[in-house]
Amino acid sequence: MTLNRFDETAAAGLPKLCGSDVELGNFILGIEDARVLDTCQEASRALLREIDGLPLWTGAFGWYAAPAHDSSRADTRWTGDLPRSGSSSVEPGRVVAWPTTSVTVAGGSDISRDWGRRYLPGNGGCAYIDLNHLELCIPEVLSARAYVAHWHAMLRIARRAQARAQERLPEGQRLQVLVNNTDGKGHAYGSHLNFLIARKTWEDLFHRKLQHLLTLAAYQVSSIVFTGAGKVGAENGHDWADFQIAQRADFFERLTSVETTFNRGIVNARDEALCGSRWGARDVDPPADSMARLHVIFYDNTLAHVSSFLKVGVMQIVLAMLEQGRLDRRFTLDDPLAALHAWSRDPSLTARARLESGGETTAVELQLRFFEAAREFVEAGGCDGTVPEAGTILALWGDTLEKLGRRDYGALAPRLDWCMKYLILQRAFQQRSDLDWESPVAKHLDHSYSSLDPEDGIYWSLERSDGFERIVDDAAIDRAMVEPPADTRAWTRATLLRLADPESIDEVDWDLIRFRFWDSQFGTIRRTVRMSDPLSFTAAQTAPLIESGGSIDDLLDEIDRIEERRNEP
Question: What are the residue numbers of the active site?
């Protein structure tokens, strides 16, 4: 049997394409109605209302317009011009109903998941509501540098929505948005990364080679020393801690799981490739047969450029090593969960955890083991073609670990959120003798660090005063707000959303778009274009047709041909 292009790529190592889906903390201050105990629902909808995206509506797949009196079909909180994408078909006085997946929570109330998803014509990302939190998804990117640019671009889009939504609120009310992962009262919300890996690598991780799973868990747990966002206190039934390196540490309860909102596992086993269906698809050999998506729910929501860059870049290197069988099982921990909880509660970086092979290690010492193995791997060309800027990532990783080994918090603060937050809190205690870790002011500073508001947010104030090292500049972030990555399918997705009549788009997903066209002779014509391969449908493939002035039908035909050529020998 002849290997197709996907089999050949998988054998050589897939580029470690990355995506992310991140929930933000959102609430409204100043609502005096005693019946309103939780303003997250109102806040998240107010934010999403101000983010333009597609689809406008669809019957079975997305949004639809419904008469305002039909409360059984619509969320009647919002009326009028809710979808601000310019649809002339949504008339004032009508309610826009959004598809929801209801979840029953403690107390019997229903809240919605994956609600009102909007894909952005500007950069190919999307925004929606998950469990009453605004959730942001960057477009697919190939490099850690592009990740930082598009992550901060999505934050600027959310900030713009916050400013617009604030203008609509009654006097005395204030919309707050936090770029963090817990509210300090026992509730956590997700900060997920997603990486393209070979299907065989995924099967080895979860079905065949336990040592691979344990090694990846050991890497993730020890990497909190440069990926943690830091927080005051403890949650989820854990004993009090003055300060923790990782915000999400308290919420991990097992080694692996498919769940993301309870019983969270360090390594998530969700099998959702977003590369076409593996079952019932029209394709003989869909990409999902040879490609998989590693869904990483472990990490904190980071703002510092270096922390964000290393979080993605080092993970790309580690996954490339895993894919090529180059990770050492001697790095595994005897109890990864116990190690996570001990290391997170120790900003002095001296806590030790037992290795499965015997002996004990600190988190930094274990990271140095991974670093030395990665340096040999990268220098031997192991990341060629799979991890852009692997040498830059390696050098910054090594230098950061060296500073962590010396506990040089002053040098680390401009790079790592948890170090900067830790120093800010310590300085506050020095300036005010009446404050300590259990003071409400300490938690207020913790949350204020991550405020999205450029005036209130401590992070943004420090960034403006050059308090942080930058990976990308403001110009790159501004471009990422309006331009999709040219080297992934995000480019074609965003381009199609720009070119098509918004009212012709029935459904958008990462790997397909469904259209509905009107023809005077044949009536309604429906077309589905599939973009199964996240590494195809790039600007190089589809831009020439657009530049030649081809019609939308011509472009859809070309995309179909790209999809069909996947199986050619």
Answer: 130
